[in-house]
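Please decode residue identities from the backbone states below.
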């Protein structure tokens, strides 16, 4: 399809599609086409399409009907529920007005009660969701999908044949595929368009009732975006933001607008109004098509699921693939599930992905729009500063750097270097006669640069220079700290006589082949921090000869992550070792870990040695004790019972021991409810007397199981 409109016109047209659909849905009703209204991404729209009905999202994202709903519902309820119910009772939603049937789902207590009330004035069918995405949950949901299909057949007086459901699945997959590929244009850096425009396309596509033409139209828009990108038409470089949390639309678009009005760009929206519903397709090749439908929809990573590992996994992929710089989570007031889960999201983003995170608690009103804009502006400014090398200095951290350096026996030049690496503030220590004792960062200083001067002891003066991107008050604080620290250093040196330079740390990096290692070494050498400390070996290894603590290694990890993203290969990053240690022996260890890591996690491209110490230890023990050294009769008994009963006791025991006998964490790992886990543990206790086994005995069991798992993995 060749588009004649410009992209802004297309985006606006899709943005208005919902309003146009108000009239379209009446036309379809007049033609005798049934309408199925829905609220949730868990509803398999293929069922409605199979009976020839139009599945349409019901009005739920505007503040205008909240007041009406609050006449009956508690004010503390989620605004999405109140807005939905208000539209229904006020008859202000044409889609609800013309809906032959409303599909509900047991995603939260508020919606369940809302559906009870709605059923008094409109036909409502409620799908019962399981609480987890476990095997049992999937079995339950498959039965629920079939129950809904049978209800549709009875309600609409139609028999849904296999051909009808397969046709609907194929068409839905094509629509999802086209929209997913549209979203993926935002992987380009810089971004080709604004995220709000992509969201207009996604939301608008839901109200195109000519389903067969939607994929072709969306594909044409995607092609036009890519074509213009190749011509140099794109946004300027902006902080790339992932938005997650509660459903986005209508009045909550203020979050996306606030991000992009303040200099950011929304590269992905992870929720049931965005990437989450487009990520997976229904497997059309499966013989059990209803099982395939159930699996696809149940995999949706919603906060109502316990545990919700699928959401974490998807967010992690989006962060990597879309080159995300920061994460904004939108939490609707009264949404307890998303609010509670935000703890895990924040921890994952901050600690595992090393990215900034901010949560925005809001409702559908415009009263907090200014406050939200201010918070988002500060968040984006912080990301911009970080990306450009500018940052707010933590004086406590500076003090810790200095004190740890002094107590660790570092020379003052090295301490200053560490401070410079963090602050970027040029510093000079000199005597009254202009004799320079220590100096760092002088190449950054201009003649007219502003200086802060502090007197130290014994006629020594410190000058700290204020660069254009630095705050004067922070440089003043730093100069004061350095002046006091110099005095501390001199006293410590006199007391200990320790004036020797610390030996640098060494670090190995391994690549899958020599060519990849050569290219990576060149990439690392381009960075000023490592320009003179990279030694490319004749094989697939690189030796970094001067690693200065966690900060340097974190920088290396970031550089390697950026490098390997576009390469077909794998990298292992080791840990620093002292110069006096045997480098060749350490390298041999890294090679062993590299091989282990590639076998255990073949889908990864970047490995950190510390993530595989456990596997290394097990591999060593296995070699020492031999194949039969750790075979235990108890484990054989458990396997036999599993074969007879299918209770999965072996896997349960493994994770119970791995989680240090923590019941909650074990249930989360197994993706089962605590109440499902407890009977298994009771049976295991009957067989093994776990309660009376000490830590060493339990560790022996775990090691034996680890050896078995490793052996089975190697055989596969």
């Amino acid at each position: 399809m060749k588009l004649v409109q410009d992209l802004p016109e297309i985006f606006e047209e899709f943005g208005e599609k919902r309003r146009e659909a108000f009239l379209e849905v009446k036309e379809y009703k007049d033609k005798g086409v049934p309408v199925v209204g829905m609220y949730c991404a868990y509803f398999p729209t293929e069922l409605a399409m199979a009976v020839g009905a139009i599945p349409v999202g019901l009005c739920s994202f505007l503040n205008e009907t909240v007041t009406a709903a609050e006449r009956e519902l508690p004010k503390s309820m989620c605004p999405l529920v109140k807005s939905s119910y208000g539209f229904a009772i006020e008859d202000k939603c044409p889609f609800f007005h013309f809906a032959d049937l409303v599909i509900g789902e047991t995603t939260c207590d508020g919606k369940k009660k809302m559906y009870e009330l709605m059923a008094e004035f409109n036909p409502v069918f409620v799908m019962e969701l399981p609480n987890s995405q476990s095997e049992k949950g999937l079995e339950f949901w498959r039965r629920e999908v079939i129950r809904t299909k049978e209800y549709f057949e009875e309600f609409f007086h139609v028999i849904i044949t296999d051909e009808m459901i397969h046709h609907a699945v194929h068409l839905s997959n094509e629509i999802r595929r086209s929209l997913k590929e549209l979203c993926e244009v935002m992987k380009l850096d810089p971004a080709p368009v604004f995220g709000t425009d992509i969201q207009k396309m996604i939301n608008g596509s839901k109200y195109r009732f000519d389903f067969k033409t939607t994929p072709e139209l969306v594909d044409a828009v995607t092609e036009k975006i890519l074509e213009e990108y190749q011509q140099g038409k794109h946004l300027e470089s902006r902080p790339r933001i992932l938005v997650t949390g509660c459903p986005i639309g209508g009045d909550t678009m203020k979050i996306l607008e606030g991000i992009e009005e303040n200099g950011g760009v929304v590269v992905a929206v992870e929720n049931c109004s965005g990437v989450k519903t487009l990520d997976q397709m229904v497997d059309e090749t499966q013989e059990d098509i209803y099982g395939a439908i159930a699996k696809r929809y149940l995999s949706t990573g919603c906060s109502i699921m316990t545990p919700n590992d699928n959401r974490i996994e998807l967010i992690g992929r989006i962060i990597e693939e879309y080159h995300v710089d920061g994460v904004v989570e939108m939490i609707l007031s009264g949404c307890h599930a998303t609010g509670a889960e935000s703890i895990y999201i924040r921890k994952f983003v901050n600690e595992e992905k090393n990215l900034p995170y901010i949560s925005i608690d809001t409702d559908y009103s415009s009263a907090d729009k200014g406050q939200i804009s201010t918070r988002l502006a500060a968040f984006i400014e912080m990301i911009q500063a970080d990306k450009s090398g500018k940052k707010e200095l933590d004086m406590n951290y500076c003090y810790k750097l200095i004190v740890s350096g002094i107590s660790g026996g570092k020379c003052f030049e090295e301490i200053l270097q560490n401070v410079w690496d963090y602050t970027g503030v040029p510093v000079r220590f000199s005597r009254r006669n202009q004799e320079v004792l220590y100096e760092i960062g002088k190449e950054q200083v201009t003649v007219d640069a502003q200086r802060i001067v502090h007197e130290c002891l014994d006629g020594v003066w410190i000058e700290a220079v204020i660069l254009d991107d630095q705050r004067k008050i922070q440089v003043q604080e730093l100069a004061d700290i350095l002046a006091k620290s110099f005095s501390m250093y001199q006293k410590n040196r006199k007391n200990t006589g320790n004036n020797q330079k610390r030996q640098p740390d060494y670090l190995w990096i391994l690549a899958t082949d020599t060519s990849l290692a050569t290219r990576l070494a060149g990439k690392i050498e381009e960075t000023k921090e490592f320009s003179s400390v990279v030694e490319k070996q004749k094989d697939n290894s690189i030796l970094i000869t001067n690693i200065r603590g966690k900060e340097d290694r974190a920088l290396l990890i970031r550089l390697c992550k950026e490098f390997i993203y576009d390469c077909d290969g794998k990298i292992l990053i080791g840990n620093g070792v002292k110069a006096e240690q045997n480098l060749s022996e350490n390298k041999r260890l890294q090679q062993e870990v590299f091989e282990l890591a590639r076998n255990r996690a073949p889908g990864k491209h970047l490995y950190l040695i510390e993530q595989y110490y456990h596997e290394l230890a097990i591999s060593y023990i296995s070699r020492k004790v031999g194949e039969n050294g750790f075979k235990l009769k108890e484990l054989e008994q458990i396997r036999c019972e599993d074969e007879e009963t299918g209770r999965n006791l072996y896997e349960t025991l493994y994770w119970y021991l791995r989680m240090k006998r923590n019941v909650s964490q074990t249930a989360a790992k197994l993706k089962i409810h605590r109440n499902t886990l407890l009977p298994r543990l009771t049976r295991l206790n009957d067989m093994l007397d776990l309660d009376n086994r000490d830590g060493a005995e339990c560790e022996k069991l775990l090691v034996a199981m680890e050896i078995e798992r490793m052996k089975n993995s190697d055989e596969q």
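Observation: Residues 505-617 form a domain with the Alpha-Beta Plaits fold (CATH 3.30.70).
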